[in-house]
């Protein structure tokens, strides 16, 4: 049985904090409100011709969307994960698991991450904190996580701020790049590096790719603020004060996408962090992303009901299709050629 101090119990508290989040905690926005897609009054295509299909990790998808899970490993979180996985299969979207660290501490938790039967035909991404490589997690451990969840790739999430704010957090990030490199050489599936809400710069992305990382998920500022969640979960006034100071920390998602794409023109790139609708997805793709990841809004919809989740997903895809139609982009590759308009800011991010 897992006690209240366990990783699994903390996951349930984190989930509740995500569901309770109202988005009014002073955090940075993702930067998408400052962007406009050029409206084409004469698109010269039919809406029925617009295709949102793409390919990711060798699998054809219905849209360039990744359902990014925020947590997992407990009976309560599995209810939501199962709904998200079923939606991913029905609409052919990529699906990301929450951190699987709990599986290493409690092997019986593995069943809460096994969703391949629910999503047999879409990419599934395993997930582990990169810093755990400095705390005894081995290549064999990572291989086992991937095999048990039948995943197509392993996401290594980088979360120094969250760990620094979390009581008992793992804050030794020294020498981590070399261990990531060793893992990339030996793991039989691609490795994707992502932040958890504070962004990855072009410089750091280049370091990671040079070490063997296959793709980057910038996971920039603008979405779920884990500094504010950790602040709310802190047991002391000082912990809450420290966490609140970082509400506006990080690289906005839009800037991170541009920075990484300029540094690495060919690397698979996922934009996540603060994307709210299909128009934001279209903007992210036009900025240079290959895929767009959304977590918080989908988790909230899934917590409400399976019907609410499917309605949200269908609205996202239709919003994307209409945005593509109104820019004259008949497919995702054409959308990548659309020039984004920056308003009220310098266009040289």
UniProtKB/TrEMBL annotation:
A molecular function GO annotation: magnesium ion binding
SUPFAM superfamilies: FMN-linked oxidoreductases
Source organism, top-level taxon: Bacteria
Binding residues annotated for substrate, in chain numbering: 10-11, 99-101, 162
One Pfam match: FMN_dh
Obligatory cofactor(s): Mg(2+); NADPH; FMN
Domain FMN-dependent dehydrogenase: 179-337
EC number of the protein: 5.3.3.2
Binding, Mg(2+): 163
UniProt catalytic activity: isopentenyl diphosphate = dimethylallyl diphosphate
Function in brief: Involved in the biosynthesis of isoprenoids. Catalyzes the 1,3-allylic rearrangement of the homoallylic substrate isopentenyl (IPP) to its allylic isomer, dimethylallyl diphosphate (DMAPP).
Subunit structure, as described in the record: Homooctamer. Dimer of tetramers.
Similarity comment: family membership: Belongs to the IPP isomerase type 2 family.
NCBIfam families tied to this protein: IPP_isom_2 (TIGR02151)
Protein name as annotated: Isopentenyl-diphosphate delta-isomerase
Annotated source species: Thermobaculum terrenum (strain ATCC BAA-798 / CCMEE 7001 / YNP1)
């Amino acid at each position: 049985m897992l006690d209240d101090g366990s990783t699994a119990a903390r996951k349930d508290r984190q989930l509740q904090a995500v569901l309770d989040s109202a988005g009014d905690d002073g955090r940075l926005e993702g930067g998408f409100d400052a962007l406009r897609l050029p409206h084409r009054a004469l698109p010269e295509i039919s809406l029925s011709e617009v295709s949102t299909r793409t390919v990711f990790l060798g699998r054809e998808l219905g849209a360039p969307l990744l359902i990014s899970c925020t947590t997992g490993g407990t009976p309560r979180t599995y209810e939501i994960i199962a709904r998200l996985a079923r939606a991913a299969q029905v609409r052919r979207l990529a699906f990301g698991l929450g951190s699987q660290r709990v599986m290493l501490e409690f092997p019986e938790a593995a069943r809460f991450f096994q969703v391949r039967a629910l999503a047999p035909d879409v990419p599934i991404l395993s997930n582990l904190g990169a810093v755990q490589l400095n705390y005894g997690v081995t290549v064999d451990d990572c291989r086992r996580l991937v095999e048990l969840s039948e995943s197509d790739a392993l996401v290594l999430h980088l979360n120094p701020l969250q760990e620094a704010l979390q009581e008992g957090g793992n804050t030794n990030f020294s020498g981590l790049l070399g261990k990531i490199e060793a893992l990339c050489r030996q793991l039989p599936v691609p490795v994707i590096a992502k932040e958890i809400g504070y962004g990855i710069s072009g410089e750091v992305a280049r370091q990671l790719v040079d070490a063997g990382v296959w793709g980057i998920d910038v996971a920039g500022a603008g979405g779920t603020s884990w500094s504010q969640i950790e602040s709310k979960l802190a047991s002391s006034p000082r912990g809450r004060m420290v966490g609140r100071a970082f509400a506006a920390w990080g690289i906005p998602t839009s800037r991170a996408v541009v920075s990484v794409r300029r540094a690495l023109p060919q690397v698979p790139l996922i934009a996540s962090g603060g994307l709210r609708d299909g128009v934001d997805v279209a903007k992210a793709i036009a900025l240079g992303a290959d895929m767009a990841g959304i977590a918080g809004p989908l988790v909230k919809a899934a917590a409400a009901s399976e019907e609410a989740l499917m309605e949200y997903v269908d609205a996202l895809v239709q919003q994307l299709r209409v945005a593509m139609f109104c820019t004259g982009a008949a497919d995702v590759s054409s959308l990548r050629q659309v020039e984004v308009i920056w308003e009220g800011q310098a266009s040289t991010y």
